[in-house]
């Protein structure tokens, strides 16, 4: 394939330098694997070659196995596309060869890249190189011997930390742990690696096969204790995913029966995991995130991003302060505007507290915090807005207030300034109704806390210019967000899709199901919080602000009750005042509050929806379906209305914005694993019993009747035939 190659150059001293080239990160495509086998065979057969240096092109060693191969296998189920790397290449061709190999590492050696390097007899690296085995994030385990060699090089505890947490390290730390043999400047990397390889060949340096080492493993009893603790940790951090325990199985096999037995076990279970539902979901999310950077008529029309150096943020509350934090952390100057000095000082202090929190966690140095704060200024009027490149309005969800602000900023800002709103629900055409600048108005919907959550929902109207969208996408990437471009409607893509989430949970409670049981079922499915604990966290103000908007926009398919109103009247406002559905005490986990039962009963009495006045009897699976199938149904409407460019945009948005389990692939991908026919039949049955809230959409009904996946937005004959291939 063009641009994918392995080359070999033999020096006069007898060292062959084998170079992998597959830009941008020298991914181990099957062509690279085949090329390595070919060049190694040639080097072994040549009398003028005494030793080998293995390296990567363009300043990088290798970013690991080509994930596109996983995606192809998931489509076809054909495991024969996986080349034999672990035994045939790493063990037989490299590690057990009659000539030594030295890995010359620069830039990065991740996944299969690091596994190749560990198969060599020494590793020389530049100081900045990133080293790691992140395979578990894709639902698999290191499959080229990593589960065996890493513990033998760095010790069992450090190896487990790197693998189970997918934690990478720099080469300097790698040298301290024994993973790297020497740190050298980039300009001397190949020269010193050649000398090192030659000295191994001449027996001036030790010829070490890492698979045969046992000195870093400790005693069998110690190893078993460490593995036991790791299994308990894995149950806590990944209760619904198999790859963590399987990884530990492979490591234990090698500890007990020897490195080569471990390699064989690893290779077997690696292939099994490649076809697991977890791997399919995680690989799908990986590609879904990549796909968000392609937006028709925006990213494919030759636009260049304009520089956005100075941004004004209007509103210093929770969202505004979080947005300002994200911007100054990434070298963008911010003017924070508030209505009076009291609110302004509160906003500035919140931003400072956000940064201090990052310093305490160790993810920000005090120097970088001070630099970020130097980019922040507070203002009480619009006089300095004449110098800004973008404005982000982040005030409360009040239509007339937002309209007034947009009328004002249009007068004070330069004519090229981007005018963005952080509204989470209000139609942008209404927000910009009183302006003459609708081509530069768009939504910049951050998720709370804005300096932490990775999703940025970019909302465009029919009038928003492609340049403005492209510029905001660029800003999003600059501040380390994943920008997803969506269409304009009430709630946009994420909140629109998930508005039935809390409402269906509430309906279940009013049908007689226990509040805390609903939360428990949803948490066990993999959501970070159940719907009622999420309401506590968001605060009830959000519920009151958006409830009427959704009820008005989606009349006939919403469920409203007095439950949250009754909680508020009882002096509860969720986590913010320490009591809601749960009790919140500093330093301890939220505790279900049984005393809300009287409030729940009163709300049930008012709603009066229990069939025959008696609580329904449902299984945990039915609870799960009654909460999520209405969400899937609304996702179908969102896709039908072309609010999203592609179905996978909803998948990545649901994962990054709502915490939908990554390993389930996102809301639409998960729904397709369940099946449109089954979801449709359940919703239809519930609609007959409980009313219009559950009524299946025409999009869902059509795909259920035709046996097509929900992710297929276009149902033209050509597209339909392609999808079945």
UniProtKB/TrEMBL annotation:
Record-linked Pfam families: 3HCDH, 3HCDH_N, ECH_1
Subcellular location: Peroxisome
Entry GO CC: peroxisome
3-hydroxyacyl-CoA dehydrogenase C-terminal domain mapped to chain residues: 491-584
Gene Ontology molecular function: any one: (3S)-3-hydroxyacyl-CoA dehydrogenase (NAD+) activity
UniProt keywords, alphabetically: Fatty acid metabolism, Isomerase, Lipid metabolism, Lyase, Multifunctional enzyme, NAD, Oxidoreductase, Peroxisome
Superkingdom, natural source: Eukaryota
Subunit text: Monomer.
Protein name (record): Peroxisomal fatty acid beta-oxidation multifunctional protein
Source organism per UniProt: Elaeis guineensis var. tenera (Oil palm)
Gene: LOC105048300
